[in-house]
């Protein structure tokens, strides 16, 4: 079959099709559809812009507070009592840690604790069972790429009677500031083995 024969066959099959609408009506309908499509595109673009604005605003609202002015001394730790009676402890590694201040703040929050700096202390035996129900860590990843924070959550009401949390805060490198912390749930009379780190 040649091309001419194919075209003739197609013409014959379409010869019964009539166009009842005038061309002006078809053009008018096309323009109306185009307007609606453009309005939908504008609305979708506006919605996308609103989502983008929220995406930018929410991480900014969730970011850690800006550094205090140079005249003020920022706190080396944050201790917050939550509505479920747990206590969240966040250590700010860049600051010099006063072990006595942290120990007092923990005691004020109802958490018996011992805090030592520049040493790593571990129990001579094992820590008390149920330690994972008494304290656990939560990690916060900031979207702007700033250093991650690790928050220790402590449930004082789940601590066994006559127990304490033993904290060791030390630098990984000499002069590098406090960058590591270890904590163990031990009884009040458990002996601890401490090694100087810095």
Report on this model:
It is built from four helices and nine strands. It has helices spanning 3-14, 23-62, 99-108, 131-134, and strands at residues 77-81, 87-91, 113-117, 119-123, 135-140, 149-154, 163-170, 180-187, 192-196. A four-stranded antiparallel beta sheet has the order 1-2-6-5. Strands 3-7-8 form a three-stranded mixed beta sheet. The radius of gyration is 34 Å and the shape is rod-shaped. The mean pLDDT is 78.
Roughly how much helix do the residues carry, as a percent range? Answer: 25-40%
Lateral strand order in the biggest sheet? 1-2-6-5
Query: How many strand elements?
Result: 9
Low-confidence stretches: none
The rough form would be described as rod-shaped
From the alpha carbons, calculate the radius of gyration and give it in angstroms.
34 Å
Q: What number of structural domains do the residues give?
A: 2
Indicate the structural class: alpha+beta
* Tally of separate helices: 4
Mean pLDDT level: 78
Distance between the terminal alpha carbons, to the nearest Å? 93 Å
**What is the succession of H and E elements?**
HHEEHEEHEEEEE
The largest β sheet comes out as:
4 strands, antiparallel
Fraction of residues in β-strands: 25-35%
Transmembrane segments: 39-62
Keywords: Membrane, Transmembrane, Transmembrane helix
SSE arrangement:
Elements (H helix, E strand, L loop, with lengths): L2 H12 L8 H40 L14 E5 L5 E5 L7 H10 L4 E5 L1 E5 L7 H4 E6 L8 E6 L8 E8 L9 E8 L4 E5 L2
Parallel strand pairs: 3-7
Antiparallel strand pairs: 1-2, 2-6, 4-9, 5-6, 7-8
């Amino acid at each position: 079959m040649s091309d001419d024969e194919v075209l003739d066959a197609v013409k014959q099959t379409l010869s019964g099709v009539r166009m009842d609408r005038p061309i002006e009506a078809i053009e008018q309908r096309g323009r109306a559809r185009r307007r609606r499509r453009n309005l939908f595109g504008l609305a979708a673009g506006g919605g996308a812009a609103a989502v983008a604005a929220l995406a930018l605003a929410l991480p900014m609202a969730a970011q850690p507070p800006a550094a205090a002015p140079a005249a003020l001394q920022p706190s080396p730790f944050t201790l917050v009592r939550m509505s479920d009676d747990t206590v969240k402890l966040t250590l700010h590694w860049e600051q010099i840690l006063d072990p006595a201040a942290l120990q007092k703040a923990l005691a004020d929050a109802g958490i018996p604790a011992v805090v030592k700096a520049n040493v790593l202390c571990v129990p001579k035996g094992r820590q008390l069972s149920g330690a994972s129900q008494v304290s656990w860590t939560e990690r916060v990843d900031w979207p702007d790429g700033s250093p991650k924070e690790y928050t220790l959550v402590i449930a004082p009401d789940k601590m066994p009677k006559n127990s304490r949390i033993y904290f060791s805060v030390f630098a990984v490198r000499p002069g590098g500031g406090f960058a590591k912390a270890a904590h163990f749930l031990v009884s009040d009379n458990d002996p601890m083995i401490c090694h100087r780190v810095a």
